[in-house]
Amino acid sequence: MSDDARELVKELLLDHRGADNPISSREISEHLEAQEVGSFPKTRMLVRDIMLEEQIPIASSNNGYYVIETEEELQDYIDQLESRILGISERKFEVRRAANEWDGEIETDDDLDLL
Q1: Which residues contact residue 88 at a Cβ distance below 8 angstroms, ignoring those fewer than 6 apart?
Q2: SS3 string of 22-79?
Q3: At residue 24, what are phi and psi to the nearest 5 degrees?
């Protein structure tokens, strides 16, 4: 996206400080007049890039993105991320176990050692 779009998104995010004041991906996309559907991948990527390059502490929730204002919000967001990581790790373990115990066929690959 253009530098103008990037600056617009940065300003939108800076106007949405605190967990009680999020802006949704849909709202950001509408401001950009982007033709996105589904989970707004371009918008998500742009928000991520702004966070990394501008060093703005941006969190996300089910309601949208916001700039972290307090240490408590930072802790809550880190806890949320750690919980998601744990959930994904558990799912990885379970799908591998299910594949090994499944009666159906999974084609093996000599270059892999999963089964």
Answers
A1: none
A2: CECHHHHHHHHCCCCCCCCHHHHHHHHHHHHHHCCCEEEECCEEEECCCHHHHHHHHH
A3: -80, 160
- C-alpha R_g of the chain: 19
Q: By CB neighbour count within 10 A (0-12 exposed, 13-18 middle, 19+ buried), where does 17 fall?
A: middle
What is the pTM (predicted TM-score) of this model? 0.81
Cβ neighbours of 50 (radius 10 Å)? 20
pLDDT bucket at 36, cuts 50 / 70 / 90: low
Q: What is the DSSP letter of 6?
A: H
Express each pLDDT in 66-108 by its tens digit: 999 999 999 999 999 999 999 999 999 999 999 999 988 898 8
Strand-pair partners of 17: 67
